[in-house]
Amino acid sequence: xKRRPRSSLVLALVAASLxxxxxxxxxxxxxxxxxxxxxxxxxxxxxxxxxxDNFCMAVGNTEVVTHTRPVTPFVQVWDGTSWSSLAFTPFAxxxxxxxxxxxxxxxxxxxxxxxxxWFSDEGEDQDxxxxxxxxxxxxxxxxxxxxxxxxxxxxxxxSCVFDVYDxxxxxxxxxxxxxxxxxxxxxxxxxxxxxxxxxxxLSGASSLTWDGTAWSTVDDLxxxxxxxxxxxxxxxxxxxxxxxTWSGESTPRSIRFDGTSWTExxxxxxxxxxxxxxxxxxxxxxxxxxxxAGDTSTADQEVALAWNGGQWFxxxxxxxxxxxxxxxxxxxxxxxxxIAVGSATVxxxxxxxxxxxxxxxxxxx
Length: 365
Known about the structure:
There is one protein chain. The strands form seven sheets. Strands 1-28-27-26 form a four-stranded antiparallel beta sheet. Strands 2-3-4-5 form a four-stranded antiparallel beta sheet, with no helix packed on it. It contains one helix and 28 strands. It is mainly beta. Helix content is 4%, strand content 55%. A hairpin with a 2-residue loop joins β14 (190-195) and β15.
């Protein structure tokens, strides 16, 4: 059965379901069409990275409808106008059963790293990553054994820092790996890097800094131990983070850093609502995306929050399709757009979706 007509219907539903009514901050979400996944598969974006307004790389996975292996990563690139597919070349061996993309980070349009897991028929799944140079992929196998990548961040100088579940922080200087030995057993870390000698991170109730030689860890966060899902620093003295705590029930959290200390900031969501991703283009322009929890009579719905330098507030909801879910958002430094990606379910089929937020005028704190 061919799925392309259904994909066309999905795109039509996506476009029709978005209303650009009263636009907060003189902007609004606009649906970005993407190419459908290969026929016979479900597909979903899992992450996106935009180093500029005219370049974003989004990664996701396709899976046979029966939800059995092999899982196959796919990559699409945004040029400021449209999406196009980019052939992905992961590490492969005689024992490879498939691959699963987990994260992407681009320091520049010609320097992107895709973190993924490759499945072995020997039962030892391994994490790895591939570097995009702007012309080709370089596959780098086996960061560790049986430990998937939680997330990573790459700086414009081509260096990257990886948080590998139950294994630790791994540094990549563009040619070699270094395992730092800092391991987050309680929860994965969120990390951002300006360069190989300057990174900041959060894990649980601790803040982390990297000076190129060693990590320092301080239990100085003003909230209980939190599962952090987003961290963005638009300058050395301006950072925001989002996540959620769990103590019988989920509570969304946000904190900010002013160069001296972290403080908690109020969110216009509560209860079981969750934010999954955060990105900032400047100190007064940030976006977070996530889900407003439904109840017995209503389904979960997407939510977008905007930061104006002083507070969070609800932005126009980026509703892209029925049963849609946004997994990640990226706003290029100094840029005027944000791209959010995820997936939606239509007629039992999962399809990748993307939304774009355009700044008409700079937000005012």
